[in-house]
Amino acid sequence: MKFSLLVAIAPEELEQECIDAATEAGAVGMTLMSGRGIGGERKKTFFGLTFEGSQSIMLMTLEKSLSLKVLKAIRQVLNPSGDDSKGLVMTLPVEHLGGIDVSQVKRFEERLRHDH
Q1: pLDDT mean over 55-79
Q2: Dist. CA 14–CA 19, nearest whole Å
Q3: Distance of CA 114 to the CA centre of its chain
Q4: Long-range contact pairs involving 74-83 (C-beta distance under 8 Å, separation at least 24)
Q5: Do 37 and 55 form a contact (C-beta atoms < 8 A)?
Q6: Which residues are registered as beta bridge partners of 55?
Q7: Are 22 and 30 in contact (CB under 8 A)?
Q8: For residue 87, with 0-12 CB atoms within 10 Å meaning exposed, 13-18 middle and 19 or more buried, which class applies?
Q9: Which domains does the chain have, with CATH numbers?
Q10: What does the DSSP assignment read for the chain?
Q11: Mean local confidence (pLDDT), 40-55
Q12: Using CA atoms, how far apart are residues 60 and 8, in angstroms rounded to an integer?
């Protein structure tokens, strides 16, 4: 079984919607972190200070074929109209993996059997 790491970076206010979309698409767990980002166009506050807002970083280890489905679900939340995206979502191949919950692997296997 091959795995991918899905990384999603979204505005904090879209975090729950991204979590819900990922869960509905088949993700069974994730790690959430807070972050800050600097975009191409800096936003200014009243006092001339720059503020980009808080971002949520979501990390998910997924079975490779499931990762594309989850990516598309999150992309729909971040970029519903296809114009201006409010975040970033990508997958990276996982070469070596240790410590994954055995029950999670069983769920991936069941989903693969069900989908094929």
Answers
A1: 94
A2: 9
A3: 23
A4: 74/6, 74/8, 74/10, 74/18, 74/21, 74/22, 74/25, 76/21, 77/10, 77/14, 77/17, 77/18, 77/21, 78/8, 78/10, 78/14, 78/18
A5: yes
A6: 11, 35
A7: yes
A8: buried
A9: 3-115 (3.30.70.120)
A10: --EEEEEEEEEGGGHHHHHHHHHHHT----EEEEEE---SS--B-TTS-B---EEEEEEEEEEHHHHHHHHHHHHHHH-TTSSS-SSEEEEEEES---S--HHHHHHHHHHHHHH-
A11: 66
A12: 9
Q: Rounded to two decimals, what is the model's pTM? A: 0.78
Count Cβ atoms below 10 Å from residue 18 Cβ, excluding itself. 26
Counting Cβ atoms within 10 Å, is residue 64 exposed (0-12), middle (13-18) or buried (19+)?
middle
- Which residues, 6+ apart, have CB-to-CB distance to 95 below 8 Å? none
Amino acid at 17: E
User: Mean of the pLDDT values across residues 29-34?
Assistant: 93
Both tokens of residue 2?
Answer: 């091959």
Q: What six digits make up the tokens of 83?
A: 């114009």
Q: Look up residue 4 and give its amino acid.
A: S
